[in-house]
Design brief:
The complex is a heterodimer of chains A (about 350) and B (about 725).
Chain A (H helix, E strand, L loop, with lengths): L1 E2 L4 H11 L11 H5 L11 H8 L3 H5 L12 H5 L6 H16 L3 H6 L6 H19 L11 H4 L2 H30 L11 H9 L11 H30 L9 H26 L8 H26 L4 H17 L8 H12 L6
Helix pairs in contact in A: 1-6, 6-10, 8-15, 10-16, 12-13, 13-14, 14-15
Chain B lengths: L7 E6 L4 H4 L2 H9 L4 E7 L5 H13 L4 E6 L15 E6 L1 H5 L7 H20 L15 E4 L3 H12 L4 E4 L26 H14 L3 E4 L2 E9 L2 E8 L2 E7 L1 E4 L3 E3 L16 E3 H9 L14 E8 L14 H15 L4 E6 L8 H9 L4 E5 L1 E7 L5 E6 L7 E5 L1 E6 L1 E3 L39 E3 L9 H24 L14 E2 L9 H5 L5 E3 L5 E3 L9 H5 L5 E2 L5 H9 L13 E6 L3 H10 L8 E6 L7 H10 L3 E6 L13 H18 L7 E5 L8 H15 L8
Parallel strand pairs in B: 1-2, 1-3, 3-4, 5-6, 5-11, 6-7, 11-22, 13-20, 14-15, 14-20, 15-16, 27-28, 27-29, 29-30
Antiparallel strand pairs in B: 8-9, 9-10, 12-21, 17-18, 18-19, 23-26, 24-25
Helix pairs in contact in B: 2-5, 5-14, 6-7, 6-11, 9-10, 14-16
The chains are: A mainly alpha (about 350), B alpha/beta (about 725).
Chain lengths: ~350, ~725
């Protein structure tokens, strides 16, 4: 039994975030019919659309199904009322991220352009403060060596500490999400998680989309590029402690790093192009652009930082500082931006058991 | 009337493949056998202007008084093959023979010869009808009911130049509109605000010099017939008489009695009201909870409250969905913090109303969902907890509602308000769901009383927009009727027919069959039970002719004698020739056109069949059946329109009557010691023409299996 008590502010928020006149949904179910994720008994996403139009905030905040959606646009294209269910699902995911973020205000910063200076200034000043504490706050002389500007120990130490801090926030949010969302009738199926991880790694469900075929490919590039770079970073940190750093150009770790950067660059560039070209089926709001552009800039500045070192550019350290701010935005803000999707989606899929009954 | 002797001219056409298929010279010789045939010609193209002129010249030359035109189906070239005021019979050689039978075959030739004989026999026994034109016909239109339909009808009638008498029982015009707060947007209206909308119409009404309005008035009696109805009005308690040509019934509707909605516990809950209650409440200025007079915070509308429900009203009333949307919108305008929930089975907003639906949906505090109310529980403060099951969320919803509005459907008001002094009752016979409309597919506004047309919500549940359209349609029908009566012609479905039933009352046994069976209440009765015909009420179907055991009812051009003559004119081959003969009485409305369609598609029709078109299978008199069987026909088919709930009979009850009469017919067969299969009734829809060859062949097989008619050669 659902006790109806509509949250009008929530409806308005979803409308603003998705740009959809979602109350004009006539509940026909064309979205469900076209959705490759919808199973026989599960009227996804119509059920969510009705709940959204009825302002059922509590229900929707505890709904892991919205995370099964890849926003492929199949439903949006087939919707006879033009209410873009795909965009509404995206708005719901965004609302969930805000809802479960600890502390919540950081997530709110990420939603509004007005907070952009704050979002950038905060990491910049903090980084400069750490460098000041390290006593290296000046542009070093001689060939480019970033450790002269930001000593590896200070960098690794401070960023790891901050990463742990934000992860604590992420864990707190996810715990709360797990608690709310596990109220759904389907119990997590034990022993399936490996299979689910496998599905995620190869984007099997994502590739079912018909309207936006290219999106699964660009995401796959970014996904694997990022994983590759994650390992590279791990090795890099180890190297700064135990081996020589930086690596030579032909070092296997370096090659992997460059391959990862290439994948990231290609993938995120494709994503940006796609969002620019497909504005009808895939609406992008500020939070989308903020995350996607930061990601792209992170990749580009990363490549430039590397190039600057090899080519000994004079502005290398400025680029490096900019890159570090972007690292902060992507890595340290991760529970509060769209990046958090990897956590919520994985958790939701584990929670639901599987994205599709097999 | 039929004359004693005739001078018949027979013209045989050879065009359209007739000449190639048949030996027209032999046909001409058949016509020549008849002494009444003074002139017989075979010509290539009778529908040409040349041929027409020639025949026109030959009519006075040979002193012809009737014509037999043997060529295409009578359904084709009806105007071209008309030769002034002269009885003309069309023999269907094209669709009836040449196109459906094997060309040049002996049996094909026999069929053509038989049809020619039948045509000559019919002509010899028929006459040109002498039309019935009542003295002093009136052209005024009486409109009963001063709601939107009545007002619009009056305006339409006056715009067409006819005087209108508008009778309203209340002290002002407007009907339900006077009780409404607002109306559903009407497309094409300058301003859909109710005030403007009604005022504009009333202004035009007053300005028109042709409309007489009687308020506080009712009709206490209507007698007579179209063209001269005698109406007794009760105006402010005083009787007044008037005469009108036709009547429009626009008495509207009433909301379904909500106290019967026991599953919602309607009468137990003070805060549950109907849409009409809400409208009146809004009109009086406040939308408040009846229990404590507080403004509601959560309003729930329950759609289809007793509609589309076999236990209540089985039909959809068309406007309740739109009404709830409209009401939701004005509740929201009045109370910006109030939530409105609309629970529907299907939301129905046809046509341009879809835009309105969308507009209402755009309000974030109007919530719509499919669902069924599965529980209503009254809380301490008089609020109602509404449980909605069977929704699209897969689990029940529960809403605490301050005010619940049941969207009840529309029921027609009783047509007994007409107070017809007819033998068959004061009101109009009710058809499907209790509405008086008789044949909604082909003849909207038609009722089973000629000259009385139903319009608006009394005809079918509908909203203001459709009521106004109805008004225009019904006025056109009313005017057509007045003008047809003045010319002595029938109205639909036989427009232009100048014949009417003529009764030889000296032989009447007062059996009342005609009075009982006439679907249109044509016959009143005197105290002895003798029928008193009102020919202008008649639709000329001939059902009375079919019903009369004494055979005293006939039309000048459609008589028992004429059809019997046709039957008897057909030579029946003897048993040894193995050429069975089946006679088919075929309804002119759908079945006969179906035969024509079969011919266009060149379907094969057995040459053993002989077709006699009839106005309705209800007009088949039993004597024709015994005539045919005595003559030696092996079988008889009666092919007519579908009876039943979705009847297609153009005279409403003709096919039904045929079904009830068939028992009687079987008795006749028994007394003649014949098999029941000798007579077969077939109900056919016009688009089933492709089934005809099969139907006929199957029947011929049946006949073959039971053997030839023993009366042959007797």
């Amino acid at each position: 039994m659902i006790e109806v008590s509509p949250d009008i502010a929530f409806i308005e928020k979803l409308q603003a975030a998705s740009g959809s006149q979602l109350t004009t949904c006539m509940q026909c179910g064309a979205c469900t019919a076209s959705c490759s994720l919808s199973a026989d008994q599960d009227v996804f996403p119509r059920r969510q659309m009705i709940m959204a139009a009825w302002g059922m905030r509590d229900r929707l905040m505890a709904d892991p199904y919205v995370w099964t959606c890849h926003q492929c646009g199949d439903c949006t294209v087939s919707c006879p009322r033009g209410v873009s269910p795909g965009d509404v699902m995206a708005a719901l995911r965004q609302e969930q991220i805000i809802h479960y973020s600890r502390p919540r205000f950081i997530a709110r910063w990420m939603q509004r352009p007005a907070f952009l200076p704050l979002v950038v200034l905060f990491p910049m000043l903090t980084i400069l403060l750490i460098i000041l504490m390290a006593g290296t706050l000046h542009i070093p002389e001689g060939p480019v060596d970033y450790s002269k500007f930001f000593p590896h120990g200070w960098l690794n130490g401070s960023f790891t500490a901050l990463f742990i801090l934000s992860t604590i926030g992420a864990v707190a949010g996810l715990k709360s999400f797990w608690k709310s969302a596990s109220g759904i009738p389907e119990a997590p199926a034990s022993g399936r998680w490996l299979k689910i991880i496998g599905r995620i790694l190869w984007h099997r469900d994502f590739r079912q989309c018909t309207e936006e075929k290219s999106r699964s490919l660009s995401h796959l590039f970014v996904f694997w590029g990022f994983i590759l770079l994650l390992f590279v970073t791990f090795f890099a940190i180890l190297s700064t402690i135990f081996f020589n750093y930086p690596f030579g150009f032909l070092n296997p770790v370096k090659i992997a790093g460059n391959a990862g950067a290439l994948l990231l660059f290609t993938g995120s560039t494709l994503m940006i192009m796609n969002r620019l070209l497909k504005r009808n089926t895939l609406r992008s709001n500020y939070a989308d652009w903020f995350f996607l552009l930061s990601f792209w800039l992170l990749t580009v500045t990363g490549i430039l930082v590397e190039a600057a070192r090899f080519l000994d550019w004079s502005h290398a350290y400025h680029i490096y500082l900019f890159h570090l701010i972007l690292v902060w935005i992507i890595i340290l803000y991760y529970p509060y931006t769209r990046f958090a999707h990897f956590l919520y989606r994985t958790l939701s899929l584990l929670l639901i058991g599987t994205t599709k009954p097999t | 009337m039929a004359k004693e002797s005739k001078n018949i001219g027979v013209y045989i056409c050879t065009g359209c493949g007739i000449g190639e298929s048949l030996n027209t010279a032999k046909l001409s010789a058949v016509a020549g056998e008849y002494p009444t045939v003074k002139q017989c010609q075979v010509r290539p193209c009778l529908c040409s202007a040349e041929a027409h002129l020639k025949i026109n010249d030959e009519i006075p030359e040979h002193l012809l008084d009737s014509l037999v035109i043997a060529g295409c189906s009578p359904r084709h070239n009806p105007e071209t093959l008309k030769f002034g005021n002269i009885l003309t019979e069309r023999v269907n050689l094209r669709e009836g023979v040449a196109w459906v039978m094997e060309p040049g075959h002996e049996d094909t030739q026999l069929a053509a010869e038989d049809y020619l004989r039948m045509g000559i026999a019919w002509t010899a026994a028929s006459g040109l009808p002498d039309p019935y034109i009542p003295d002093g016909t009136e052209s005024d239109i009486l409109i009963l009911g001063g709601g939107i339909t009545g007002i619009q009808s009056a305006l339409e009638g006056a715009r067409a130049g006819y005087s209108v008498v508008l009778v309203e029982k209340e002290d002002r015009l407007g009907g339900w509109l006077n009780h409404w707060h607002d109306i559903i947007p009407v497309s094409g209206s300058r301003e859909t605000h109710l005030g403007y909308f009604l005022d504009e119409k009333l202004e035009e009404l007053e300005a028109s010099g042709l409309i007489t309005v009687h308020k506080n008035s009712t009709v206490s009696a209507i007698s007579g017939e179209p063209g001269k109805f005698h109406v007794t009005l009760r105006i402010n308690g005083r009787n007044s008489e008037c005469r009108v040509g036709s009547v429009i019934l626009a008495i509207g509707w009433k909301p379904y009695d909500a106290s019967r909605l026991e599953h919602l516990g309607f009468s137990r809950h003070e805060n549950m009201i109907t849409q009409a209650d809400l409208e009146t409440m809004a009109k009086q200025g406040g939308i408040l909870r009846p229990s404590d007079g507080k403004p509601p915070e959560n309003v729930v509308f329950i759609q289809c409250a007793g509609s589309r429900d076999e236990k209540h009203l089985p039909y959809c009333s068309n406007v309740c969905c739109l009404t709830s949307l409209k009401q939701a919108l004005y509740i929201r305008r009045k109370y910006p913090e109030t939530n409105v929930f609309i629970v529907y089975r299907d939301i129905r907003t046809p046509g341009r109303n879809e835009h309105f639906y969308r507009q209402v949906q755009g309000d974030n505090r109007i919530f719509l969902t499919k669902g069924e109310v599965s529980g209503v529980e009254e809380l301490d403060d008089g609020s109602l907890r509404i449980t909605i099951g069977d929704n699209l969320l897969g689990e029940p919803l529960s809403i605490r509602a301050d005010l619940v509005v049941a969207a009840t459907g529309m029921e027609p008001n009783r047509s007994e308000d007409l107070h017809l002094l007819y033998r068959k009752g004061e009101g109009l016979p009710e058809r499907k769901y209790g509405f008086p409309d008789s044949h909604f597919i082909c003849f909207p506004y038609e009722t089973q009383r000629t000259g009385i047309y139903a319009a608006g919500a009394v005809r079918t549940p509908q909203g203001i927009q459709d009521c106004m359209e109805d008004a225009g349609g019904a006025v056109v029908k009313a005017i057509q009727c007045i003008e047809a009566v003045r010319r002595g012609e029938a109205v639909h479905p036989r427009p232009g027919d100048r014949s009417y039933p003529v009764l030889s009352l000296q032989r009447c046994t007062d059996c009342k069959r005609c009075t009982e069976e006439c679907p249109f209440g044509t016959y009143d009765e005197n105290e002895k039970g003798t029928p008193l015909p009102n020919p202008a009420r008649c639709r000329r179907c001939g059902i009375c002719m079919g019903s009369c055991p004494e055979r005293i009812i006939n039309f000048d051009n459609y008589s028992i004698h004429a059809i019997s003559s046709m039957i008897k004119s057909i030579p029946i081959p003897d048993e040894l020739e193995e050429k069975p003969r089946v006679l088919a009485f075929v309804c002119e409305n759908d079945a006969y056109p179906a035969f024509d369609l079969a011919a266009f598609h060149r379907h094969r029709i057995s040459p053993w069949l002989r077709i006699i078109p009839v106005r309705c299978i209800g007009s088949i008199n039993k004597i024709w059946l015994s005539d045919a069987l005595s003559a030696g026909f092996d079988g008889i088919m009666q092919i007519g329109c579908k009876p039943g709930e979705d009847y297609q009979c153009h005279f409403i009850t003709g096919s039904e009557l045929m079904e009830t009469r068939s028992e009687n017919i079987q008795q006749t067969l028994q007394t003649m010691m014949l098999e029941p299969e000798r007579i077969k009734t077939v109900f056919l829809e016009i688009d089933e023409y492709h089934r005809l060859p099969e139907i006929i062949d199957d029947y011929l097989e049946t006949i073959e299996s039971i053997g030839p008619n023993p009366f042959k050669d007797m």
